[in-house]
Amino acid sequence: MLFEPSHETAAPIGNPPKRLLMMAILAPFGVIALLASPLLIDAFRHVGGFFN
Q1: What is the sign, positive or negative, of the torsion defined by CA atoms of 29, 31, 36, 37?
Q2: How would you write the pLDDT of the chain (52 residues) with one tens digit per residue?
């Protein structure tokens, strides 16, 4: 039989700070935006008529 700790002896799981949760959610979008920025800049230059 496997030992399962009771609720009294198990370590409580704390809630992570809200800032950490927001960073975990928003960080991938920030990375995607940074990686796509050269494409976006080129698209804006093309729309604006600034051909180099």
Answers
A1: positive
A2: 566 666 566 566 678 789 999 999 999 999 999 999 999 889 988 888 865 5
